[in-house]
Amino acid sequence: MLDLLLFATPGSIFPTVIAGLFGLMIGSFLNVVIHRLPKMMQRESDNYVAHESGKPLPHTDRYNLVVPRSACPHCNHQIAAWENVPVISYLLLKGKCVKCKAPISARYPIVEVLTGAVSALLVWRFGSGFAGLATLVFAYMLIAMTFIDADTQLLPDDLTFLLLWCGLLINISGMFATLPEAMIGAAAGYLSLWSIYWIFKLATGKEGMGYGDFKLLAALGAWLGWKMLPVIVLLSSAVGAIVGIALIVFAKHGRDNPIPFGPYLAAAGMLALLYGKTIAQTYLGYVS
Fold this sequence. Notes:
288 residues
């Protein structure tokens, strides 16, 4: 049974279903990461500034991914276990707090369903061996970074660096790329966007993207190798341009309002993981 679950070949139904259910639970945890990690960073920054200024620390209570318990932001009602079952609790509660009836953001079940669906897809595509489990780690960190960047326009170093080092370690055995390809991918990923950043800044005096984007592309290069970087950049730029134009036209999003690029890099990284070689071959065949 354990072998059937953990070392199944691609296309196996039972591990795929289990991965989907497991992904729902991980999605619930990712909601905590998405909500709390930026706050943890801000609290750490506030304490550092206060310490350097000789002032009392503004945050002395414990606040991390585990403590305190999750609570309603409107009435501070602590979430019971039955209220925290992925997707099902949201449906049973009809999207409202059990105590004050304030609406619960649809973001929570969306992240859970997305994580479950991606988990099932990856195990179906790569199996439940070491490669399949590695892709789950890859996907979970990308999902967390996508929503954090969408909310705050920040890509935390705690996630981008972790993703980068995991990619290099995974590819010691050449799982997704050879180690030299992964190392070159990490360096080229960072330097390519770093160069574009400075060219744009020198030409316009404005910052076109953040340093977190450099680190995320470096991490994607570490996982998939330098050969996938053109595919990732092309896909992320195309999707970003389409979404950006749509926001300006339909949502009246100001041209000067920044649009986070991290979600498009993350989506492109997932597409490159799943279909990168096919996309590259199709593109090269079309060009030739």
